[in-house]
Amino acid sequence: MKKILKNKFSQLCNHVSKDYELYVPIENEGIVNFSRWEDEVNINLEIKTNTSPKNFVFPQSETYLKFKSEGKKLKIERVDEEREDYVLFGVRPCDAKAFNLIDHVFLREPVDRLYEEKRNKGVIISAACVEPEETCFCSSFDINPEELKNGSDIFIWTLENSIIWKPLTEKGEELTKKLEDILEDVNEKDLKELEIVKENIRKKIKELPLASLNPQTIQGDLNELFESEVWDQVSKSCLGCGACTYVCPTCHCYDIQDFDGQKNSLRFRCWDSCMFSDFTLMAHGNPRVNQKERFRQRFMHKLVYYPNNHGEYACVGCGRCIEKCPVNMNIVKVIKKLGGEI
Ligand code: SF4
Ligand code: SF4
Known about the structure:
By secondary structure, this protein is of the alpha+beta class. It contains 11 helices and 12 strands. The model has no long low-confidence stretch (mean pLDDT 94). Residues 227-259, 305-337 form the 4Fe-4S ferredoxin-type domain.
């Protein structure tokens, strides 16, 4: 374990940005999002970023083929993006865990090359969650916001005058080595202060309004849950706007479309949402004919299908869907209803 004094933090960023593109959570008019680091930006590790950082590995839209017509011939060209090595500093533990969850989808055979390239180029530095928000419930999914064991390459804790730095992977060790002139060894006093910080986080997490939410209250076999009358009740107000899926760090559905530029055309993929009426629309029609069926798909996937396939829930309790839904519907209400709590 190492540490960096807070008054040397700019120096650290300068060093990192020599070898990597460095992205940090920057506050702008009360909204925090990841942006490229530059001197004197307003870094904020306390407010949750408005959107999740999944767009670094799974951008909202990306081109993967170009095609050109020459007479009757069609020339297809693969597009390979030259992604620089990058560092994402200050990722919340819930968002870091979400990278792990979408890895199960994109990195299993057949591996998604666009995702893999971006994932391999990034170093994730996750920060202990010192200011969990009222809408947070990561502990319901066994995520430890005071010390995440996997999902990031380096884990940091903010103390009064320093930042404690713990590499967790080979990539993390590599970056740490490059910074050995700036990082210092921790001492007994730092470790004591660190324990206090961790204890404070544990206390805050226990006191959150959603701390007792338990997805394991959802019982019953797949058919029973699928046919449950709860879906009629919870889906009634859903507008199908897709906001919940776009802000969700674990949602990963996409559509493939062509841009017809006459002689030079592009094939690109872009985020899609199971809440949209044309999602899964095929030549014969759409297998999900109403909003209830679309709504059920989103939550059955997160709470039943994905855990059945991968052994964990596809939600990290970041709370963004609670904040963004225009009709105040969200996964918490679904868990409570399906689990018989309300
Ligand atoms: S479903 Fe909601 S709380 Fe869960 S990860 Fe997605 S946005 Fe966050
Ligand atoms: S944000 Fe709310 S209204 Fe919009 S699709 Fe999601 S649940 Fe439905």
